[in-house]
Amino acid sequence: MSAPVIAVDGPAAAGKGTLARRLAAHLGLPYLDTGLLYRATGRRVLDAGADPRDPGVAEEAARTLRPTDLERPDLRGPEADAAASAVATQPGVRAALLQWQRDFGRTHGAVLDGRDIGTVVFPDAPIKLFITASPEERARRRHLELTARGNTADPAQVLAELRARDEQDAARAVAPMKPADDAVLIDTTTLDADAAFARAVEVVRGKIET
């Protein structure tokens, strides 16, 4: 088969980004963290002193997004998380960023990770993975990530913010986060990065050889 598009979806801190990057390197495919598009859009809105929930401002930020915006060092953390989730609920923002993602994947195949790759961006992708883990385990990982960066974070608050984002992402009217009907579910709650990667490679190999 020609170079495939591999859709890797799932909630925050489930390990999908680490897995998708490693999978792309293993297969020699380009990689795109589509969440960065929304994070960068949200950050541009914040830079303008505006509200990420403002549809007009958010859509303009998405339409004028530059590749260099994805390289900013301030696209992680609670503020960026909240802004990304807010702009991602807006149809105009999602429409503006949809073509970017499709052009990237269709050029030479790719591994893309996000929340609606397998359901909206590439519903015909031959390989779809949905990476998940328990909220408590994801909150533990996110807390470790934040403290490793020198950010003070209360574990209970991290869990509350993660649950709130899960709810918002799953309940939004446009492109809600959910597994595609034909996605393979990988629960990483009790898996380390190597075990999760091995499982993903097993799934991909089975799909390619079929």
From TrEMBL:
Catalytic activity: dCMP + ATP = dCDP + ADP; CMP + ATP = CDP + ADP
Keyword annotations: ATP-binding, Cytoplasm, Kinase, Nucleotide-binding, Transferase
InterPro entries in UniProt: Cytidylate_kin, Cytidylate_kinase_dom, P-loop_NTPase
Domain of life: Bacteria
Subcellular location: Cytoplasm
Residues engaged in binding ATP: G10, P11, A12, A13, A14, G15, K16, G17, T18
UniProt EC number: 2.7.4.25
One Pfam assignment: Cytidylate_kin
Domain Cytidylate kinase residues, every copy: 6-204
Gene Ontology MF, one: kinase activity
Name of the top EC class for this enzyme: transferase
Gene3D superfamilies: P-loop containing nucleotide triphosphate hydrolases (3.40.50.300)
Family membership: Belongs to the cytidylate kinase family. Type 1 subfamily.
Protein name: Cytidylate kinase
Species of provenance: Teichococcus aerophilus
